[in-house]
């Protein structure tokens, strides 16, 4: 379980009730960060590579000193491609299970949750393993669960609304990716695709651009499990005009210990204060 930590020396373990905790759970890892809400500054980041089994997540929470503290606010981001966006005008809380099952099969021993998204005005209906849900709520009774599309769509809207042309965002996770297109303050396209290799990602992206008659010389904004000069960016550079790594932004700052690679990889985690 490789471990990564970025730790600001001003962090005070005795002052966590003035801090906000954000945890992200995906099939690739468990990561969390701490925001000093008095200074609006991120002061800690930790990441553990693991699968999303209940026992390992429970072990991480039990053994980590900061995950056992009390916080002003605590939120968990669930990273999964299994979600359905429902326009706010059509949403009925009593039918959330039906909405989810329109696009996905409902796994045994899983809970279906929903959260409101501001941009666009919709609800994201998504699934989480019930054992994992129970482990988290037993540790943090008042915790808020958020699907990763909520901070991602919020970021795309805030950044992309100033663009005159199409704003295209590609967010890559371990076994799926999100492709989002914004134009004139409206979401033109938003979908998730499973992939087996990076050629699959290029295939889907190029075909979506063709279907929307978008020039491949356009800029694609990147976040998630992608790095500069890796196989994915090297492949894309032969077909796409420009690649740009997205960085979180909002009414917050980062300690000097943070780096660009962590910021674009965990874009949704750090952008959470913008939409919660």
Describe the structure.
- With 276 residues, the chain is α/β, with parallel strands linked by helices.
- The chain folds into three domains: 3-78 and 249-274, Protein of unknown function DUF3822, N-terminal domain (Nucleotidyltransferase, domain 5, 2-Layer Sandwich); 83-147, 2-Layer Sandwich (Nucleotidyltransferase, domain 5), CATH 3.30.420.250; 152-245, Nucleotidyltransferase, domain 5.
- It is built from eight helices and 15 strands.
- Strands 1, 2, 3, 4, 5, 9 and 15 form a seven-stranded mixed β-sheet that branches. Strands 12-11-10-13-14 form a five-stranded mixed β-sheet, sandwiched between helices.
- It is globular and about 55 Å long.
- The two termini are 30 Å apart.
